[in-house]
Structures are given as structure tokens and as C-alpha cells.
Description:
Helix content: 25-40%
Radius of gyration: 15 Å
Low-confidence stretches: none
Number of domains: 1
Shape: globular
CATH architecture: Alpha-Beta Barrel
Largest sheet: 8 strands, parallel, barrel
Distance between the termini: 17 Å
Strand content: 15-25%
Order of helices and strands: EHEHEHEHEHEHEHEH
Number of strands: 8
Number of helices: 8
CATH topology: TIM Barrel
Mean pLDDT: 97
Strand order of the largest sheet: 1-2-3-4-5-6-7-8
Amino acid sequence: MTRCYITDRKRADVVGTSRRLIGDGIDMIQIREKDLEAAELLDLAGKIVALARGTHTRVLVNDRLDVALAAGAHGVHLPSDGLPAHLVRPLIDLVGVSTHTIDDVRSAERDGADFVVFGPVFDTPGKRPIGLNALKDACRAVRIPVLAIGGLTPDNAALAVGAGAAGIAAIRMFQRS
């Protein structure tokens, strides 16, 4: 099962959390700090990339190809309405896309994404869950890995994987561990 930690520095020390999770063998870290200016985001990404160097953890920067490239990150994570994956594919090794519908999932695969994050599957603050059946349909609709997101806990993560998800992506679950 692939595990992806999505950062939120407003709730936790993301460098310290990343250090701990890299030590625990986390598969991916998505740096998702939308409010940071480029220089601050580059500094943060550089620190996390340095921590991951020599490990199997791959680091992605959310929606900022320029920062991902400058920091030496492995990839970029794009919103479903952002740059198409095929435009960034020649420039970087790993491309993920956030998705919320079956059409989003199929479009991301057609555009060349390596994986998608799909959800929210379970209850999460401010968002309506789409549920396990939608996750199951999304997983069946494509050949690329689908990671479940939204309201995940150690208890319900197995349900998402049981529905066909290749893994999970989460903020709070990993920051609390």
C-alpha cells in the first residue's frame, strides 16, 4: 500500500513530521503549502528533499513545477483543473493529479499522470464525502494507481484499500501519528 503524506504547516511541524515519516518508510510526501511565496516554498521543499535523499521516499510539490524543479523534487502534484500532466511530463519524473470524479480520473490518466488522488472518500471538515462506491468505480476506471484521500484514519484506511485503492494520501492521519 502506497502512503502519501500531504503537508500542512499550520497544523504541525512539517519538517519534523517529514523526518519522522521518512524514517518510518513513507512512500511520498506532497508539499502542499498553497499560501507560501515561491522563495519560502523553495526553502521548505529543499529541506524535505534533503531529508528524503538516499531513501525511497519521493517528494512532490503541489502545483508549482518551477519550485519542484528548483528544489530537485521527484515530482509535481497538479489540481484536476490545472496544467495537463502531458505538458509537465517531459520536465519531471513523477506527476500526480487530484481528482473528484470518474471523468477527472480518466482525464488524468489520458493526460499522462502517474497516479491520481481521489476523494474525499470519508467525512472531512468542509467537504462532503463521495464514499467507497465512488472510490471503487474510480479504481476500476483506470490502470494507474488511485490513492484515496479524505477523512482517512488508521481504522478506515483498510476499507479504502479494500475498495481497490493502491494506497492512501492524508494530512491529519500522518501528522497525528
